[in-house]
Design brief:
The protein has 2 domains: about 160 residues, Rossmann fold (3-Layer(aba) Sandwich); about 160 residues, Rossmann fold (3-Layer(aba) Sandwich), CATH 3.40.50. The protein has 11 helices and 8 strands. The strands form 2 sheets. Strands 2-1-3-4 form a 4-stranded parallel sheet, sandwiched between helices. Strands 6-5-7-8 form a 4-stranded parallel sheet, with helices on both faces. The C terminus is likely disordered.
Length: about 375
């Protein structure tokens, strides 16, 4: 494909105390989240100065991409846009068009299939084109899911192996360590409808493709870690965190804190949490894991450690470049699981908006 620009596409976050509640209200609009829950979550941001780390992390990643990509043969301008905070998609899309770009390739800071992690971004970009009267004048395609791409997983493998060795050296036998791969919980209904309809019989309900992809990624990590540690491989499980919806709606479980309590009851002596569902240290990682999960582990008398996210690790930056080159030059796709490589374009009916059905689009242009 002949692309003329790249768009780093992300979630966004507040950059000051006055932005926290307006930001949370934008994020949860129409989702039935109790106001009390928004107030509770706002305190997490305010404890960090009212600033989400995600924007600075994206600025750092953008700088690394601009530095590294020419060496990989990608000589295209790179822009950055957010769903929920400045720089907003509508403004960035308008700027790209004014700069002369007509065929844009978007890479998203979300590696997995779900409405909020995939289709909603496509809807956001479609709306940005519509709001700027650019339908038919400009196209934005989205890079495929990369949950099992080696560039995404190598930084996790590297750091988890180190964390296990450190905990063993600290006196916890590896068979008494529980590795917990953590990701953002989503409503069961969103999990069940994640992924293409034609493949939904491949994975179990209620997690759907979302859970299957996380399990595949976690299994790849543990298989690789087994070759890099000087001890027996610990047991592991997939856990969830950061649920925010109405309490009447079932979300994917177990919650990471409940899992930590269960680990203690099962005789474990240490817990290592791996934020496999996140590409960088979002507030959900820093607060929900580094604070709340750590506190739960301490209350249970368990050793605790948290593995690194991919962040700006050189393998991840190169992996992003490889994902883009698949589309720009048609280079071979890399995937480490039987689920992948994922399709370039989403199928009709994939990860539907269960609140309001919108026309299915394979890219940001209908």
């Amino acid at each position: 494909m002949s692309y003329d620009a790249i768009l780093l596409t992300s979630f966004g976050g507040p950059e000051g105390p006055d932005e926290v509640m307006p930001y949370l209200e934008r994020v949860t609009a129409g989702r039935g989240v109790p106001y009390e829950r928004l107030v509770e979550v706002s305190h997490h941001y305010l404890a960090l100065g009212g600033v989400s780390p995600i924007n600075d992390q994206n600025r750092a990643l953008l700088a690394k991409m601009r530095e590294r990509f020419p060496e990989l043969g990608i000589d295209l301008p790179i822009y950055w846009g957010n769903r929920n905070s400045e720089p907003y998609f509508a403004d960035v899309v308008k700027q790209m068009y004014q700069d002369g770009h007509r065929k844009v390739l978007a890479w998203v800071t979300s590696a997995y299939s779900s409405y909020s992690g995939c289709r909603q971004y496509r809807e956001n970009l479609h709306k940005a084109l519509t709001d700027n009267d650019l339908l038919g004048k400009m196209t934005i395609d989205k890079v495929r899911h990369y949950f099992d791409h080696p560039g995404f997983l190598e930084p996790v493998i590297e750091d988890l192996a180190q964390k296990i060795n450190e905990m063993v050296q600290g006196g916890v036998a590896s068979e008494r360590i529980k590795v917990m791969f953590a990701t953002h919980s989503i409503p069961n209904a969103m999990g069940e409808t994640s992924g293409p309809p034609a493949r939904r019989e491949e994975w179990a309900k209620p997690g759907g493709a979302y859970e299957a992809q996380h399990l595949a990624a976690s299994g790849i990590v543990m298989d690789a870690v087994a070759k890099r540690i000087d001890a027996e491989i610990p047991q592991w499980e997939l856990v969830y965190q950061s649920r925010s919806g109405s309490p009447e709606i079932p979300w994917l479980e177990p919650d990471v804190n409940d899992a930590i309590v269960s680990a203690k009851a099962a005789g474990q002596e240490g817990v290592i949490v791996v934020p496999i569902g996140f590409v960088s240290d979002h507030v959900e990682v820093i607060w929900d894991l580094d604070n709340e999960a750590k506190e739960t582990a301490q209350e249970q008398g368990l050793a605790f450690s948290r593995a690194a996210t991919s962040g700006v690790h050189h393998a991840f930056v190169d992996g992003i470049g490889e994902l883009l080159l698949e589309r720009i030059r048609g280079e071979d796709k890399k995937a480490l699981s039987k689920l992948g490589p994922w399709a370039d374009f989403c199928a009709v009916g994939c990860c539907p908006n269960l609140r309001k059905e919108l026309p299915a689009v394979a890219s940001a242009e209908v």
